[in-house]
């Protein structure tokens, strides 16, 4: 029997602000998933959206993750991967999959609710062509025409993700009006280029997975194993929202040592009983997804972190 290849995982934060506890939990889980299987793990800084990303946040992200005790086999700067992203767009253009979307924001709202809570795009502009001089000269957003029909998909944790992405989400934007190359395209190109075999990420991204699998099929790329995990959520007027800027890493670092915060996070997701200080490496031997709780964890920060699960 062929030895099975070493798994490759990744953590792919957008560098749009400081890490928060949810970022750190996602990093820890992706890292443990790979390390517990003797695998490699890559940190990819998702920084293409120059309207929201700053180099200082990328630098700080690297430092905060190291402070927590995480190490990486490679650190990928997404901006440096432009040539590969353009090559994928060339493939899609040659296959006649790209089209200009001339819809206004108003045209795009209403209609069908998408599984991610936004509006599904009704593929209104399908049939429009690219500029004669090629996709690089477009001044409108470009979308990719997906195949119609369902993508059958259940993630490794049993989360049912079967979806007809062309209908339920709509054809995704791959080049924004301002020229920024969009997430749904670059994520699959970059995962493939890094040899990623296991994508471990928060449940908030699960509604995009079928779109990404459809994109892999168009580009002839293999589909990795997917697993979507719990989120840390903030209570807000009785409703739970993804925990965002409320507990920035700079404040967490002023309050805790790295091993203290790592212990708290490990306790919050079910990996330890006592939440005692430890390093990520101490969790590798006994790591198992069966020990990670699946429900979201309400998190509050008022000078100290508390978790209510
Ligand atoms: N960069 C995306 C985010 O931070 C995640 C990408 C992914 O894990 O696929 O939400
Ligand atoms: Zn349109």
Largest sheet: 5 strands, parallel
Instruction: Please state the structural category.
Output: alpha/beta
Q: Number of helical segments?
A: 10
Relative strand content: 15-25%
* Terminal Cα span: 43 Å
Shape, per Cα inertia axes? globular
**Radius of gyration from the alpha-carbon trace, in angstroms:** 20 Å
Considering the chains and any ligands shown, give keywords for the structure.
about 30% helix, binds glutamic acid, about 300 residues, binds zinc ion, 10 helices, four-stranded mixed β-sheet, alpha/beta
How would you sum up this structure, described in words?
Helix 7 (209-219) links the parallel strand 7 and strand 8 (225-229). 37% of the residues are buried. The protein has a five-stranded parallel sheet with strand order 3-2-1-7-8, covered by helices on one side. The protein has a four-stranded mixed sheet with strand order 10-9-11-12. Helix 6 (183-193) crosses helix 7 (209-219). The protein is α/β, with parallel strands linked by helices and 309 residues long. It contains ten helices and twelve strands. It has helices at residues 21-36, 55-68, 82-94, 105-108, 165-168, 183-193, 209-219, 249-255, 258-268, 280-283; strands spanning 8-11, 40-45, 74-77, 98-100, 142-144, 173-175, 198-202, 225-229, 232-236, 239-242, 297-301, 305-308. The termini are far apart. Bound molecules: glutamic acid and zinc ion (ZN). The site of zinc ion has 5 residues, from loops.
